[in-house]
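Dear colleagues,

As part of the handover before I leave the project, I'm documenting each prediction I ran so the next person doesn't have to rerun anything. This entry is a single chain, and its sequence is reproduced below.
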Amino acid sequence: MSTNELRISRRAVEMPESPIRKLAPLATAAKDRGVKIYHLNIGQPDLPTPEVGLEALKNIDRTILEYSPSDGYLTLREKLVEYYRQYRIDLSPNDIIVTSGGSEAVLFAFMTCLNPGDEIIVPEPAYANYMAFAVSAGAVIRPVISTIDDGFALPPVQEFEKLINERTRGILICNPNNPTGYLYTRREMEQIRDIVKKYNLFLFSDEVYREFIYTGSPYISACHLEGIEDHVVLIDSVSKRYSECGIRIGALITKNKMVHDAVMKFCQARLSPPLIGQVVAEASIDAPRSYLMNTYDEYIERRKCLIDGLNKIPGVYSPIPMGAFYTVAQLPIDDSDKFCAWCLEEFQYEGETVMMAPASGFYSDSEHGRNQVRIAYVLKKEDLQRALFILGKALEAYNSR
């Protein structure tokens, strides 16, 4: 057989590129030219990891770095039970499976609950990697589109029901939302509950940003919704709340024993979640309340800095995000993919430029979000202010070519 006859899988061909990371080679080339880049493109917090987590890492006292249980250490799951209790989420350690990041939790949820060809309804724009996980599972995402004009509120129930057919198996939400920062209201969560119950669907709920809610409205978890307890698969991660993206510790949570036991088969096949990551995560749960409060206060200030600054740039509009640390902004451009690439390839102002994520990558149909970008406010205020100034200069230059 010649190499010309080799083929990769259809799954691999259909796997979408990350809108967040696909511009990385252009950023590397810009840095090689000596250009300073303000990274607004990725949700990597710049705030320090809790000291208790770092101390646990430095003081690991083991002679063997062994496999952990496939569902994670019991001591970590017991601590997580206490953590969730403060949010009125009542669990037992047996409801929690520790995963290699929230990403593995989503993938295992899809692999367990969806057959190839099954469909899930997802409000969009949505976290781009959901599409990649759906492709991996052979599932099909059916989007309902939220709009910037409505602040990315949940589309009407009728829009969901139009998509439901014999292949529909679930609804996936992210609350608070990545990439929009939208926080679902109690009424919206109850509408989702009613659809899930009426059509006997799974509800996959990604809630990794629950610490970052900037409104007096309550946080409504999928686990708070009465009458669909066995339908809920909750996705979580320590990456954002403790600035621990690199330790790759997440969780899949469900009270549905059939789903739990099936997920465990996938967990056993990959053997175990990261040992060292679990050690750090378990210690970090004991971080003082002041750590989370200081982090929260910092994001409040950054949010105000970013949103005020964006809306002062001519032709730019961003709604006020009520959670997470992202916003989707509308720019006075025709194509955000081209603009974001141009910022890295051709533009600089006083040796500096900005890197953002084109919003088209957060929709199943890339024709949506063509004049929008996702911006993460994970830089200190001084850097955000400078990045906003640079963005304004970039828009002037781009539109005067």
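The longest strand covers residues 168-174. The CA atoms of residues 89 and 280 lie 23 Å apart.

All the best with the project,
I.
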